[in-house]
Amino acid sequence: TDDALYCIGCGAKLQTTDPKAAGYLPASSLAKADAGEDIYCQRCFRLRHYNEIAPVELTDDDFLRLLNKIGESDALIVNVVDIFDFNGSVIPGLHRFVGDNPVILVGNKADVLPKSINERRVTNWLTQAAHAQGLRPVATLLTSAKKGRNLDDLLALIEQYREHRDVYVVGVTNTGKSTLINRIIKDENGMGDLITTSRFPGTTLDRIQIPLADGHFLIDTPGIIHRHQMAHYVNPKDLQLVAPTKPIRPTVFQLNAGQTLFFAGLARFDYLRGPKAGFTVYADNQLLLHRTKLANADAFYEKHRGDLLSPPRAEDLATFPPLARFEFTPKEKSDLVIAGLGWVVVPAGAMVAGYAPEGVDVLLRKALI
Ligand code: GDP
């Protein structure tokens, strides 16, 4: 016989080893349960008692299956991305899976944008970046799940486009999707008309269904893991350096050709050719920016990564990937973007190079500011 226990909420096989996988509950809670008692996994427990959604991670195959299911249904899709890491938060091929379903693109973490930025420009850039991926959102909106900004607008857009259909919320991990949904569920004013509180949200292995007033559902899908996010290469203790929590402030460096800027040991910027010029850097205010000579930069990095140039921490060097190099000479004023970390404003005609851990994107976009 099978002695395995199953969560009575979502049906997942209970396990005590992987907090991020389905069916987890702490060994102590399992031990406390009396024989024959109904047991919830931690995720269902938190949902029932605190109306709080905990993320669960799926394998790529399961996620593909889920996306296919979404494509086959008649629904509104809400895709949450991190505006500091668009390339690290797009779902590859999403446009093929959504079929004819409308997509609302939500650029989250707007609270971290520098004060001087024009949000319309960010929205336009985000829409264009989506187009470049083949995704054609019916609307693009910036939000801050953390500060509760623009959530009313988001709910209004959802009501406008869902036309009495289900709503699937999709996104890769670390975009703030859980924070956003928790905020929506708990925000009594905004959600008052949309979500019916008469029924508990239901869970299944791969989704959480929040009942809406008209009998349809807002469905939270598990976040897929995007392995090439900067966040995966950084010690959790240093995460606030790559995922800023306060509005980022620009720092201006007057650089001559032949100078290098290190972003701690995580990334690097070389000024290769052009006249002396000001380069504005947008990155977390706490992140070390270190200027040195290009000619010595390789040796300097070799010697100092893990100590002066930290993060990465010394104990993480063994698993930290080498930096990959990308060269650009923009024709107009542009941002050299180091995905998930920040960007450097590069004047037209300057020849520069950007470096990031292998797998993390370095790209050029028209200057946002
Ligand atoms: P999920 O994996 O997409 O569900 O993301 P989470 O909701 O767990 O959030 C990932 C990280 O981003 C957490 O450290 C959050 O505190 C942070 N975060 C979420 N939303 C925001 C936001 O609007 N602004 C900022 N600055 N951080 C956010």
Automatic annotation (TrEMBL):
SUPFAM superfamilies: P-loop containing nucleoside triphosphate hydrolases. Residues 64-227 form the CP-type G domain. InterPro entries: G_CP_dom, GTP-bd, GTP-bd_ribosome_bgen_YqeH, Mito_lipid_metab_GTPase, NOA1/YqeH-like_C, P-loop_NTPase. Transmembrane segments: none annotated. This is Ribosome biogenesis GTPase YqeH. It holds the Pfam family YqeH-like_C.
